[in-house]
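Reader question, answered in our methods column.
A reader sent in the components of a multi-part assembly and asked whether the whole thing could be modeled at once rather than chain by chain. We filled in our standard form and ran it. Here is what they sent:
COMPLEX SIZE: two components
ENTRIES:
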Amino acid sequence: MLTNVKLGKNMRSVSIVGIGATPFFNGVENETYKGITVGELFGHAALDAMKDAGVEPRDVQYFFHGSANPYILNKCITPNLQVADWFGMRGKGSLSHSEGCCTGYIALEEAVFAVASGAYDIVLTGCSEQGTGMPDGDTPAHFRVPLTSEVLFPDLDSIFDQAYGRYLGGGPGMNHDDWINYYTKENGLTADQIDDVLSHQAYHFRRAAALCPRAIRRKPFDEMAKEAGYDDVWEYMKSPYNPKMTQYLRTASDSCVADGAAACIVVPTEIAHKFTDKPIEVLGIGASVLDAIVPHLEKKATAEAARQVYELTGLTPDDIDLLYVNDFIGSSAFLAAEEVGYLPKGEGWKYVLDGRIAYDGDKPMNTNGGRTSYGHAFGASGLADIFEAVTQMRGEAGERQVKKLPKHVFLRGFGGAQNVRAIILRSAF
Amino acid sequence: MSNERIKTEEFWNPEHIVEKFWNGLKDGVIYARKCKECGAIEFPPHLACNTCGYHETEWTTLSGKGVLKSFVFTGALNARLALEDRGLKYVCGEVQFDEGPSFNAVIIGINKRKGREIEGKLPVRVRPVFYDMGRYTTLFFELDE
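And here is the structure of the entire assembly that came back:
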């Protein structure tokens, strides 16, 4: 792969002035949400973001709609036009995009481009996903049934290159464990040590989710251990209650599939203070994409996207106060933290064991709980991370507020086997 | 890139690169492309070079021999169901051809015990297996011992 991209400065700076999000939940089992539709979800998140920015639907000029899999999950291929009417944007321009689990991060990139170019001044970008269910035959949208493995499993392969990689087969099989396996060998760690590290990471992320009212899994592992008859939570984490799903990952390090939506409003930074006292500037977004056939793709693409954004912004890892990593593969969290320089190379695992990556640690990350605890509504997850990042930067995260008000936040988006984005936000107040 | 554009007739008589690759495997031949500028091997074959970014490549073939550099076992979450259905013992790992290119491949004939045995000996030599999947033949590997 080539690494010769040098990002240029945007034509004008862009800032986030409004955020909105629904909780992440199970839409086919949770009676409160059963029957709600993908358009309503997007509408709630969009109107929440507009309210936060102090604008009405009439003020918004264009919107982006992201979803990881609108066809299988909602029998729909142009979701932007099917949701527009829900929040008063009938007849305005919009665009659908779909980049697997990286969709929510690319949602921000798209909106930034639209404003940075000068084409629009007020843009909404949102993602809505109903990951737990699928349409119940040929019926209106509120008829939903659980997503069956007969539908899901064959469809999962659709993120892999159909020409070659899917049928040569190695890439899909390497997807979850390639990087953690590489790291384990590189650093001379044992399988037991890695098991401990991943258990501690899941434990601390759950502690954050327990304080996050929008998270789907909020019961702390201590409580779950007690209920299962274990006095020692670490024994519980290695018990049959938390079985291995891959060579390295237990269920606690696997994402929790959810439904949900999130959105934000972006405007030129020069007018951002008209909308909020606490605008968040998007300093830059690095990008790299590698198909799963490429060995160690996640490590390579993460390094390249980070290189681009650091070069553009002139910042170094020491400037970063808070990190978000899309960790639907649980091990990605601390591995990516090392790769982008947030944790020292080869030592991230120690930071995890010492709890330093927890929301109340000195190197906080994934303060909403990440994909394993906050939940994973595929395309919407990235924007949910941006929602949390902005909340923390404003100092509005309540009990899970990190100790030092973050000035610079780094987000590592990932998904779709695999798109990677490296986003740096700065509080512009 | 030279200013000479691709002729319309060429578009109407395009080479079927993907089809040629898979048909090659059926005949026990591994097709790849070689960059006309930097000489890097593009595997699996595509139109342009992903090593140096030059626009033109030409056909070549690979021996199929190489080394297995790293591998993982699969579990409930990432098993290759088509292989499980056939009762194959396999791992997924990085294979580097002797001619240079690396890719994530399937290596068959490795159970848990064998995997633990070779883990400390990596990289180990592998050879190609042209495996009949029914409607197509794919490329796996096995230990060359």
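What stands out: Residues 29 and 61 of chain B are 7 Å apart (CA to CA). The interface with chain A takes residues 18, 21, 44, 50-53, 69-83, 91-95, 102-106, 133, 136, 138-140 of chain B (CB under 8 Å).
Send us your own complexes using the same form.
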